[in-house]
Amino acid sequence: EVQLVESGGGLVQAGGSLRLSCSASGFTFGRYAIGWFRQAPGKEREGIAFINGGGDDNTYYGDSVQGRFTISRDNARSTAYLQMSGLKPADLAIYYCEAASAGWVYFGGKYHGDIAYWGQGTQVTVSS
Asked: What is the rounded CA–CA span in Å between residue 110 and residue 20?
């Protein structure tokens, strides 16, 4: 059974840090590109951080998190991470990880991928 399970969300004060984890099972994790997305209340889903797979490991970030968030992966543990620092109340959202079968492609102002698997999300709340 394929699973992506996010964890590490919670409540943090503005300016604080959190590290989210995305644990995968049921597929060859290292071959897949991983992306972190989020959806805030009343807003569209937003792609924020991306890392390629298959040994590429190039990373890309959305403008809203560039310089504050870092995506990484540990293929031996089939886990991806999102280190978040300098959190703002605007970062409040449900955060999801998704696995894409090919690398991320940038067009139309966004990164796109052939999404194969996704998780159920973890809530991040930032208090002011």
From this structure: 22
| Mean pLDDT score, 77-83 | 98
Question: Among all chains, which residue has been given the structure tokens 């995968």?
Answer: 24
What does the alpha-carbon distance between residue 114 and residue 63 come to, in Å, rounded to a whole number? 21
User: CA–CA separation, 6 vs 127, rounded Å?
Assistant: 21
CB 103 within 8 A of CB 111: no
DSSP 10-50: EEEETT--EEEEEEEESS-GGGSEEEEEEE-TTS--EEEEE
The answer to whether residues 57 and 71 touch, using CB atoms and an 8 Å cutoff, is: no
How is residue 69 written in tokens?
């968030």
- Average pLDDT of the chain, as a whole number: 96
Q: What is the pLDDT of residues 86-118, one digit of tens each?
A: 999 999 999 999 999 989 999 998 999 999 999
**Tokens 């543990």 identify what position?**
77
